[in-house]
Amino acid sequence: MKKFFIAIAVMFLSFTAVQAQPYNAAIGLEGGFGGLGLTYKQFTGPNNFIDYKADLDIFHENLNLFVSGTFDWNVPISGGFQFFYGLGAAAGAWFGDYTALRLGVFGNIGFEYAFSAIPFALSIDWNPGYYATIHDGITGGFGWNQNVACVGLKFTF
């Protein structure tokens, strides 16, 4: 009887792992209140992934470039619908009236839907965090990256 329960548990965990990762990697575009960005997402296990982003602020008179990376945990909800959360670090530069460097640590939380019939996924996420600005000294505070609330479209493969 013990072997039966172990076999059922192994089958359940295998099924969960297959369901948790709808694709291996994705590349796409994201947009938010602060600009546009490129994103690359790579699963590192059945329930986690690394997400790299490069954002460009095009909606203000100053140029702002920002790169970030997060390690995220993936929680399948139903079908291709997923919830994710994670932690990350970022670096950026502000060019305008003055030049400044921004460094930060932040969280990532969001939802994604991966289509089964076509190789695309839609996502929405939010990135609150603590950022330090280096320009004539160091200032810091709670804030967000360029795309505080992002909507993304990714090509999955």
What would a concise description of this structure say?
The protein is mostly beta strands. 12% of the residues lie in helices and 69% in strands.
Q: Any overview of this molecule?
A:
This protein is mainly β and 157 residues long. The chain has a single domain, classed as Beta Barrel (Porin), CATH 2.40.160. Helices cover 12% and strands 69% of the residues. The chain has one helix and eight strands. It has one helix at residues 2-20; strands at residues 25-32, 36-45, 48-57, 63-78, 81-95, 99-114, 120-134, 138-156. It has an eight-stranded antiparallel beta barrel. A hairpin with a 2-residue loop joins strand 2 and strand 3 (48-57). The N and C termini lie far apart (41 Å).
List the helices and strands and how they pair.
Blueprint lengths: L1 H19 L4 E8 L3 E10 L2 E10 L5 E16 L2 E15 L3 E16 L5 E15 L3 E19 L1
Antiparallel strand pairs: 1-2, 1-8, 2-3, 3-4, 4-5, 5-6, 6-7, 7-8
> What is the CATH third-level topology name?
Porin
Distance between the termini: 41 Å
Global outline: elongated
Number of strands: 8
Q: What is the averaged pLDDT score?
A: 83
Given helix and strand content, the structural type is mainly beta
Strand content: over 45%
CATH architecture group name? Beta Barrel
In percent, how helical is the residue content? Answer: 10-25%
The total count of helices amounts to 1
Rg, please? 19 Å
Q: Give me the strand/helix succession.
A: HEEEEEEEE
Looking across the biggest beta sheet, what order are the strands in? 1-2-3-4-5-6-7-8
Low-pLDDT runs of 5+ residues are 11-18
